[in-house]
Design the sequence.
């Protein structure tokens, strides 16, 4: 199992306004380091305590050598999920997509035959290329480079 080192970037915290709560809240980005490179995981409202979602994502990254993690799905193993989808001859809804952010890809959507919303964040670009070949009908959207957007370079 790979050792995952988390980095909470408190110096990159930012505030957003919520109409729901009628006020501002602060988010702090969390990254994991892999071979000296920082990879964005997610933002958290709780940088000083253990966010259970971040902990779960890090556990998954450790289990699969930092290739991907499941944000939500009834199966956390992406390949097992796809095998079940294909064996059942299920089809993806037309809004299912690979959203490429440069350093990672979000693969998310639903199924036509029954409600099965899913979202996976993929860091392994070889895995992404393999998935694109396996799922040629799923659209690929270039969302720009996430890190450049975050750092104001775009």
Sequence:
């Amino acid at each position: 199992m790979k050792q995952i080192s988390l980095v909470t970037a408190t110096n990159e915290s930012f505030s957003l306004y919520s109409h729901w709560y009628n006020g501002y809240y602060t988010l702090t980005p969390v990254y994991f380091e892999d071979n000296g490179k920082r990879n964005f995981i997610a933002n958290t409202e709780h940088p000083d305590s253990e966010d259970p979602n971040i902990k779960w994502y890090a556990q998954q990254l450790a289990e699969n050598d930092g290739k991907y993690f499941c944000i939500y799905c009834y199966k956390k193993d992406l390949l097992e999920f796809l095998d079940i989808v294909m064996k059942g001859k299920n089809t993806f809804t037309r809004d299912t997509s690979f959203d490429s952010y440069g350093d990672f890809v979000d693969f998310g959507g639903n199924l036509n035959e029954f409600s099965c919303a899913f979202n996976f964040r993929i860091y392994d670009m070889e895995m992404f290329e393999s998935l694109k070949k396996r799922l040629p009908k799923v659209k690929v959207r270039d969302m720009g480079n996430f890190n450049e957007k975050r750092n104001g370079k775009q």
